[in-house]
Specification:
The protein is an alpha/beta fold. It is built from nine helices and 14 strands. The strands form five sheets. The protein has a five-stranded mixed β-sheet with strand order 4-3-5-14-6, covered by helices on one side. Strands 12-7-13 form a three-stranded antiparallel β-sheet. Strands 1-2 form a two-stranded antiparallel sheet.
């Protein structure tokens, strides 16, 4: 069985595109297609469904993929054992992350990461929408929401403490709420889908449906609207910490912690082996943020 064919198959499984996978390996689309035909002929099964826009694995292809990945990893380790290969992270690492978190915390950390792993190149896509990482051919996704897809694996990278914040100007004009129930008399700004806030109180969990003057799909936009005095907001400390340090925002309702238990997660497709470049990313950023992320030291 041809190792080059296996390598191409694994890249196609990741990118869902024969031309793109071939280009990454220095092959034309025609040569890539011919190699896949040869691999299927050798195995005697159809490994993928091909359309003009997308490639998807057949049931047999999905069953074969982890074995192909294991063979390639073993070959690389065998080469490294005699000094002609490397198990160090290399190639292109494709990452998707929330826009605000990516700009504020991933980008500043990349210089050290790339210095440590100079054989890696980064393809970073920032979006506040949940992207299909498998369909998009991503190696890893950064998410701050619960994992619902059983075909993916999530590893915690950092805590995501959430706070209730307001600007001093807003509080001077409208007063400071002292209980969650008081929020019913205030206006709020929110991310889409985050309009009910759950608090832990002596009487149990209280769910407060907020009166929203503004909803947006970007955390920095919500934060900045709060700074401008449009209303009270629920915000991650990683987004709010600089405004809290400067005094442009203040934390309120500190006696009533939020019921949500949130975190920043690294998410990747399940397989038998964790690619060295993915492991390197998770280990580096887990250490970079630490048990007490710098944004919580306010």
């Amino acid at each position: 069985m041809n190792i080059a064919h296996l390598n191409l198959f694994v890249r196609i499984a990741t990118t869902h595109n024969i031309s793109l996978a071939g280009k990454e390996l220095g092959l034309s689309a025609a040569v890539s297609s011919a190699q896949m035909n040869k691999l299927e002929e050798t195995l005697g099964v159809k490994l993928m469904h091909r359309t003009t826009r997308k490639v998807s694995l057949t049931e047999e292809g999905q069953a074969f993929l982890p074995h192909a990945e294991e063979v390639l990893a073993n070959v690389e380790m065998a080469r490294a054992s005699v000094g002609i290969g490397s198990v160090t992270p290399q190639g292109k690492l494709r990452i998707t992350a929330p826009a605000s978190f990516g700009r504020m915390h991933i980008i500043p950390a990349l210089e050290g990461f790339i210095e440590q792993y100079p054989d890696l190149t980064i393809d970073l896509r920032l979006s506040d929408s949940i992207i299909d990482m498998v369909g998009g051919g991503f190696d890893i996704a950064i998410r701050d929401a619960a994992l619902n897809d059983s075909t993916l694996i999530a590893r915690k990278v950092a805590r995501d403490k959430r706070l209730i914040c307001a600007s001093p100007n807003y509080l001077a004009k409208h007063g400071t709420p002292t209980t969650p129930q008081d929020l019913k008399n205030h206006t709020c700004v929110n991310l889409h889908g985050l309009t009910t806030w759950s608090f832990i109180t002596p009487e149990g969990t209280q769910n407060i449906k907020t009166n929203n003057v503004l909803q947006a799909d970007n955390g920095e936009a919500v934060r900045d609207a709060c700074v401008q005095g449009l209303g009270i907001t629920l915000m991650s400390s990683w987004c709010a910490y600089k405004k809290l340090q400067s005094g442009e925002l203040v934390q309120i309702l500190q006696d009533y912690p939020l019921a949500s238990d949130t975190a920043i997660w690294s998410v990747y497709p399940s397989s038998r082996l964790l690619a060295p470049k993915v492991r390197a990313f998770i280990d580096y950023f887990s250490g970079y943020f630490g048990d007490e992320p710098y944004w919580e030291k306010i």
